[in-house]
Amino acid sequence: MHEVKAVVVKAKNEPAVVETILVPDPGPGEALVDVLTCGVCQTDHHYQVGGVSDDFPFLLGHEATGVVSALGEGVTGLAVGDRVILNWRAVCGECRACRRGEPWYCFATHNASTKMTLQDGTELTPALGIGAFTEKTLVAAGQCTKIDGDLEPSQYAAVGLLGCGVTAGLGAVLNTGALKRGETVAVFGCGGVGTAAVAGAKLGGATRIIAVDLDDEKLATAQGFGATDLVNSRNQDPVAAIQELTDGNGADLVIDAVGIAKTFQQAFEARDLAGRMVLVGVPDPGTTWEIPLDQVFGRGGSIKSAWYGDCLPNRDFPMFVDHYRLGNLDLDGFVSERISINDVEPAFTKMRESKVLRSVVELENLHTLADQEVQ
Question: How many domains does the chain contain in total?
């Protein structure tokens, strides 16, 4: 049993606080991971306010890198000392989605069954089955995606963001939206996920990338990641602006990274005939939109939602890391600040106020790793 510091929220709307928790050794099929970095994601805040479930207390954090420190019985393809990105889609290989060759939709993903607890024995619910605002966490071995090749210690903060938000945006364009080279892409909402969608459009060869937001600073950030045209929807009708930029046609692919009824409708209307639309922004429970079926039919194309950007971690993470190393994908640009485990609650405030793309917690294990590499 390992006693470690971790960020926990004990009840709905309570602050995220640092507590000592107990992390057991791994059971069959599980991995114990020394966490290096973990990004502060909107999903963690959803857990805090009860927007995911009522299974308090929660162990927060999920956009993480780490080093495997122990393995349970039966684990193959992973070794102690491997450096990994954690993921929340450890595919089962047996459900109906996996059997039909679509494991990125796996309906029975694996998590660790051995429980981490508070000191009094209360079982913790790890965010997205990971729980990585902690010095050690316990996950299913399939939640560990090995990082091949060396990284500088300072690079782990950026690479860890592939664990959730950045991959959701990249995948919404490249996987769900099936971007073709030379197409036009419009992205509604330029927070972390939307900015990643802009980066994905650039990576995938879009020749016109239209960023839409209410905030000029966010638009300027999107431009730095590859947006060719900026539309402030506070000042102009975004649908009309997108049509004007596309010879009156609309975009080939439109991404809604906001997830409210208004942006959904705007994204729907901003498509070209037979264009595609992808919803990757997570709507609040109960959000509705009145569907004009004649327009759905008349416009053709497709309307899809992106679950984790239809990502398959063992396929997509290594590819994105390679693009990062080659300079094609600016993951460092998503890291707004590097903080300690004690700074998660203030980081939630900065995130809600749109002052950061990502705050990233750097654990003491990262500093130990850096010291070892210097020696």
Answer: 2
* All residues at 6 or more sequence positions from 92 whose CB lies less than 8 Å from its CB, including other chains: 98, 106, 108, 109, 110
> Which residues constitute the domain of residue 103?
2-164+310-374
Choosing from 271, 289, 305, the residue where a domain stops is 305
Closest listed residue to residue 109, CA positions, set 88, 124, 84, 132 = 88
Residue 266's CATH number: 3.40.50.720
Flag residues of the chain having pLDDT under 50.
none
Q: How far apart, in Å, do the first and last CA atoms of the chain sit?
A: 30
SS3 track for the chain: CEEEEEEEECCCCCCCEEEEEEECCCCCCEEEEEEEEEECCHHHHHHHCCCCCCCCCEECCCEEEEEEEEECCCCCCCCCCCEEEECCCCCCCCCHHHHCCCHHHCCCCCCCCCCCEECCCCECEEHHHCCCCECEEEEEHHHEEECCCCCCHHHHHHHHHHHCHHHHHHHHHHHHCCCCCCCEEEEECCCHHHHHHHHHHHHCCCCEEEEEECCHHHHHHHHHCCCCEEEECCCCCHHHHHHHHCCCCCEEEEEECCCCHHHHHHHHHCEEEEEEEEECCCCCCCCCCCCCHHHHHHHCCEEEECCHHHCCHHHHHHHHHHHHHHCCCCCHHHCCEEECHHHHHHHHHHHHCCCCCCEEEECHHHHHHHHHHHC
How confident is the model at residue 370, as a pLDDT? 73
Dihedral sign for Cα atoms in the order 273, 278, 284, 288: positive
Looking at residue 131, its pLDDT comes to 96
pLDDT confidence of residue 291? 85
Which residue, among 117, 120, 93, has the nearest Cα to 105 in the 3D structure? 93
Q: Domain for residue 76, yes or no?
A: yes
- pLDDT at 374 (0 to 100): 59
User: Distance (Å, rounded) from C-alpha 203 to C-alpha 293?
Assistant: 34
The whole-number pLDDT of residue 367 equals: 80
CA neighbor of 156 nearest in space, from 330, 40, 36, 322: 36
Question: With contact defined as beta carbons under 8 Å apart, do 178 and 101 qualify?
Answer: no
Instruction: Dig out the tokens for 25 from the structure.
Output: 């050794």
User: What is the structure's pLDDT at 130?
Assistant: 97
Q: Answer yes or no: do 160 and 198 share one domain.
A: no
